[in-house]
Amino acid sequence: MYFQKNTQFERKLYEDGIKYIAGIDEVGRGPLAGPFVVGAVILDLNKIFSIKLDEWETTNNDVKQVPLFPYTQIKDSKKISANKRDRLADFIRKEAISYSITTFSPREVDRLGISALTQQAFYTVIQKLAHKPQFILTDTFEIGKITKTHQVNLVNGEDNSISIAAASIVAKVYRDNIMVDMHKKYPNYGFDRHKGYGTKAHIEALYKFGPCEIHRRSFNPVKTLIGR
C-alpha cells in the first residue's frame, strides 16, 4: 500500500507498536502582538494506515487521481489557504483520538521570555491531552521534561510529519480566530490581516497609535516605543 511522504515517521513508529503519537507545534512565537499558542494532536493511525490513498475517480470521461481522503491534504499550515485550514482544523478536531491547545497571553510572554515559555507550553499541552501519548514528535524543539527516548525533534517537522502538521493547523486556526476578534476591539492595527506579525502596515500603525493592550512589551519596536 502507498503511504504519503509525511506519514513515514508515524508509520515506522506504528510498525514498532506505537499507535498514540502526539504531534506538537506552536504558532505566535515571533509576532509583536497577541498570544502564544501551542497545539497537540494524536491522529488515528489505525484509520490512516488502513485506507488506500491511490484511488481513482472518473469525471466527464476523464480519469484523474483526486484527493478523496482529507488526510492527504494535511500539511504545513502556512502552505494552506485560510479556508482550507478552517475545514481541515474542523476535520482534525473531529477525527483525532485526542487534541489539546494551550494559550499564553502577551503579558506571560513578556514575563517568562519566549524560550522558557515555549518549554512550559509544550509540556503543558501534552498534559492536557485526554489520551496519554506513547511518543512525541515536534518541529525541531526538544522538550526538556520528556525523555529523549520518547521524542523526536524533526527538522522541517510540518513537512515531514502529518501529526506535527495537524497540530500546526489546529493551533494556527485557533490563534488566527483570536486575532480576528482582537481586530474588533483594536481596529487601528489590522490584526485581522497580519495577525500581530511585524508587517510594514503594523509597524506604521504602532508608530501612529502607540502600543495597545495586546502588544508584547518585551519585543521591539514595542519596547522602544514604550520607553521613549
Structure in words:
This protein has 228 residues and is an alpha/beta fold. It has one domain (5-186): Nucleotidyltransferase, domain 5 (2-Layer Sandwich), CATH 3.30.420.10. Helices cover 42% and strands 17% of the residues. It has 10 helices and 7 strands. The strands form 2 sheets. Strands 5-2-1-6-7 form a 5-stranded mixed beta sheet, sandwiched between helices. Strand 3 and strand 4 form a beta hairpin. Helix 3 crosses helix 7 (162-185) and helix 4 crosses helix 5 (114-127). The chain starts with 7 loop residues before the first helix and ends with a helix.
Secondary structure: elements and pairs:
Blueprint: H1 8-15, E1 21-27, E2 36-42, H2 45-48, E3 56-59, E4 62-65, H3 82-95, E5 98-104, H4 106-112, H5 114-127, E6 135-139, E7 151-154, H6 157-160, H7 162-185, H8 191-194, H9 200-209, H10 222-227
Parallel strand pairs: 1-6, 6-7
Antiparallel strand pairs: 1-2, 2-5, 3-4
Helix pairs in contact: 3-7, 4-5
Through-space gap between termini: 63 Å
What class would the helix/strand composition place it in? alpha/beta
Going by CATH, the homologous superfamily would be Ribonuclease H-like superfamily/Ribonuclease H
What is the mean pLDDT?
91
CATH class category: Alpha Beta
CATH topology tier name: Nucleotidyltransferase, domain 5
- Second CATH tier, the architecture: 2-Layer Sandwich
Summed up, the domain count is: 1
**Number of helical segments with 4 or more residues:** 10
Global geometry: globular
Q: How would a textbook summarize the main sheet? A: 5 strands, mixed
What is the C-alpha radius of gyration, as a whole number of Å?
Answer: 19 Å
| Unreliable stretches covering 5 or more consecutive residues | 55-68
Listing every helix as H and every strand as E from the N terminus to the C terminus, the arrangement reads HEEHEEHEHHEEHHHHH
Strand ordering within the main sheet: 5-2-1-6-7
